[in-house]
Amino acid sequence: GSSVPDHSLEFIGKKIVDKCGGLPLAIKALAGLLRGTQDIREWEAVLHSRLWESPKDKTDVIPALWLSYNHLPSHLKRCFSYCAIFPKDYKIDRKKLVLMWMAEDFLLSTESGKSIEDTGDKYVQQLVSRSFLEPMDKSYVTMHDVMHDLAEFISGDFIARQEDGQASGFSERARHFSFYADFYDRISKFEALHKTQFLRTFLQLYESNGNSKGRYFLAQRVTTT
Fold first, then answer.
1. Where's the Disease resistance protein winged helix domain (predicted)?
2. Residues 77/192, Cβ–Cβ less than 8 Å
């Protein structure tokens, strides 16, 4: 095989760290990618990847994060980019996130004896281990701002949010939409949605950052139009 002494991997690892420009999150993300592999070809592939030279005029995403994302399995890529439906710094309920992934059919068939929820929880753990999500406690995760920027860039027009009464990223191609609930939400709040044709997710969020205690009302016309 291509396994090599630790000191050779250490040499390559130091060069990769240098390319990260001292950014802790970038280093953590790539450490999560390379953890557990002793194949020098994989380490060299990261070191010499063309993604380090990503043109800055196209995106402000840190190249190391592009690299980490590029090496995710396709099912984790879908799950991660979907998280752009949440605003920055939002406290994401792990169980609800798994249910949302289930609704989108993002979870692959389960191992024998495992439930589909177990599979979803495993995905959360894998994204946490690679620093795409950050644990808050046993029940909640969040996203670092630059990871959120990456998820937004990848999801493109397919995700739209409404924050502070302002539409963000609305397009007729939007598939997933989230908004902060007011005490009473009228149909006028959602006028920008009229041009969307393939909306799949209509997600109500709460200013209390994940806590839905209290009463909120949605005009009937919103759900029947």
1. 85-151
2. no
pLDDT (tens, 9 = 90+) of the chain, 225 residues, equals 455 556 688 888 888 888 888 788 888 888 888 887 888 888 888 888 887 786 554 556 788 888 899 889 999 999 999 999 999 999 999 999 999 999 999 998 777 778 999 999 999 999 999 999 999 999 999 999 999 999 999 988 788 777 766 555 566 677 787 777 764 454 555 666 666 677 778 787 877 554 455 444 434 444 444
Contact 67, 51 (CB under 8 A): yes
Which residue range forms the structural domain that includes residue 11? 7-65
The CATH number that applies at residue 119 is 1.10.10.10
Burial bucket for residue 98 (CB in 10 Å: 0-12, 13-18, 19+): buried
Domain count of the fold of the chain? 3
Copy the structure tokens of residue 164. 């502070």
